[in-house]
């Protein structure tokens, strides 16, 4: 039951306790490998209304008047009150192995042994505070967790399949409220969508005040484009603050955008439309606007490097698309031998126990006289870059890039790494 408490809410002093940012909660789960999700049974109803305040919640029905003894839905301060309670009781464990969003609780751990101990601590807290979970909606010690419309696994963030299906099956809107609902759902996943503002511009223009509704071909194309890009199931990496962040930006005549990356894996996309004044900027000014906007958006990720960078006298240098030459990188016998798999293959080759690999000029070869490339530093990434980004390569597709690479090189999972690189190439999008 949900009561209309608008009159009560209007005279209520607002509780300003902040609801946690969803993106911050996801970031905490990046390095975990085991997850348990708990859902409180009718969470609000487990919070007692302050004694003496019950009459304020009175509702009138044809069967008589009733007042709540527990916190009902619809009160303006209900979310903040519940959030305050959860943060208070779980305070010792927040940002360590527990994240809470209202009545959703996720316990995360690196190992199963750790996870069992963390669960014991959480259940003890719940027992002490007489809070009860709904068993049917809980999942325990999983390697993948569904949380706030997303799936999280192995440091990767994905869209929830049910939400993707809902977007995919959405019929073209015929009036503003329907369009606003569609854009509201798609906007929730905008961090997955490169150039979202530009893609959605024909649709957001229809939401402007006094704008006459006219669903033309541009609107239909933008609608289908958003549905298509959402269903491509792009996987984002969750940030690791021990690694270096990269910000790639771009600007067009009508919009600016960028992507936050770590080790060539996208973490989030960002974009916005340029206003009328900004559209008259020079190309250089638009590019700088894109940089400033992205730095502001991701400042909570990047400020950690500010003190470190302040120690150096450095300049920002434009880097052209041509790739660095890395042919000499593979001649480093010491680096090759340091890799466990490479050492095992070299040993087998020397002993004549494998026909697939052999050693020649201190380098490991396989069929087609291709060089085996160890996972060392950025060697593999640089080779993919040379076969994709350089002028002679011309930014080909996944198959062509892999074919060029496999003419001279080999390593396990070469197909997956090429696919990941090409899918996140800003030029090819």
TrEMBL record:
Ranges for domain Reverse transcriptase: 1-152
Protein keywords: Multifunctional enzyme
One GO MF term attached to the UniProt entry: catalytic activity
Keyword Iron annotated: no
Gene3D superfamilies: 1.10.340.70, 3.30.70.270, HIV Type 1 Reverse Transcriptase, subunit A, domain 1 (3.10.10.10)
SUPFAM superfamilies membership: DNA/RNA polymerases
PROSITE patterns linked: RT_POL
Keyword Isomerase tagged: no
Protein name (Swiss-Prot/TrEMBL): Retrovirus-related Pol polyprotein from transposon 17.6
Gene name as annotated: pol_1159
């Amino acid at each position: 039951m949900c009561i209309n408490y608008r009159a009560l809410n209007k005279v209520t002093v607002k509780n300003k306790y902040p609801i946690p940012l969803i993106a911050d909660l996801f970031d905490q789960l990046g390095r975990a490998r085991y997850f348990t999700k708990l859902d409180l049974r009718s969470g609000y109803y487990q919070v007692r209304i302050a004694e003496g305040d019950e009459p304020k919640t009175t509702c009138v029905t044809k069967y008589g008047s009733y007042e709540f003894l527990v916190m009902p839905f619809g009160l303006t301060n209900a979310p903040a009150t519940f959030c305050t309670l959860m943060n208070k009781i779980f305070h010792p464990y927040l940002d360590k192995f527990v994240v809470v969003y209202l009545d959703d609780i996720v316990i995360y751990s690196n190992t199963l042994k750790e996870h069992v101990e963390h669960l014991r601590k959480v259940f003890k807290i719940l027992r002490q505070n007489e809070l009860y979970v709904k068993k049917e909606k809980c999942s325990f010690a999983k390697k993948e967790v569904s949380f706030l419309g997303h799936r999280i696994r192995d440091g990767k963030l994905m869209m929830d399949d049910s939400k993707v299906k809902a977007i995919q099956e959405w019929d073209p809107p015929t009036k503003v409220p329907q369009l606003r609902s569609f854009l509201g759902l798609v906007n929730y996943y905008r961090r997955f969508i490169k150039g979202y503002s530009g893609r959605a511009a024909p649709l957001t223009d229809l939401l402007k005040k006094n704008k006459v509704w006219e669903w033309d071909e541009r609107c239909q194309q933008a609608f289908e484009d958003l549905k298509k890009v959402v269903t491509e199931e792009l996987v984002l990496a969750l940030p690791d603050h021990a690694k270096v962040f990269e910000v790639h930006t771009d600007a067009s005549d009508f919009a600016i955008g960028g992507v936050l990356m770590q080790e060539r894996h996208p973490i989030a996309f960002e974009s916005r439309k340029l206003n009328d004044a900004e559209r008259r900027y020079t190309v250089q000014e638009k590019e700088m606007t894109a940089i400033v906007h992205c730095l502001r958006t991701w400042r909570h990720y990047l400020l950690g490097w500010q003190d470190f960078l302040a120690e150096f006298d450095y300049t920002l240098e434009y880097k052209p698309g041509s790739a660095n030459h890395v042919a000499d990188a593979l001649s480093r016998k010491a680096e090759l031998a340091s890799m466990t798999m490479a050492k095992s293959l070299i040993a087998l080759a020397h002993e004549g126990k494998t026909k697939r690999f052999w050693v020649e000029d201190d380098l490991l070869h396989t069929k087609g006289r291709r060089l085996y490339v160890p996972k060392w530093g950025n060697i593999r990434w640089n080779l993919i870059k040379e076969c994709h980004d350089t002028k002679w390569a011309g930014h080909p597709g996944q198959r062509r890039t892999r074919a060029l690479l496999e003419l001279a090189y080999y390593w396990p999972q070469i197909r997956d790494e090429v696919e990941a690189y090409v899918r996140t190439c800003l030029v090819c999008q």
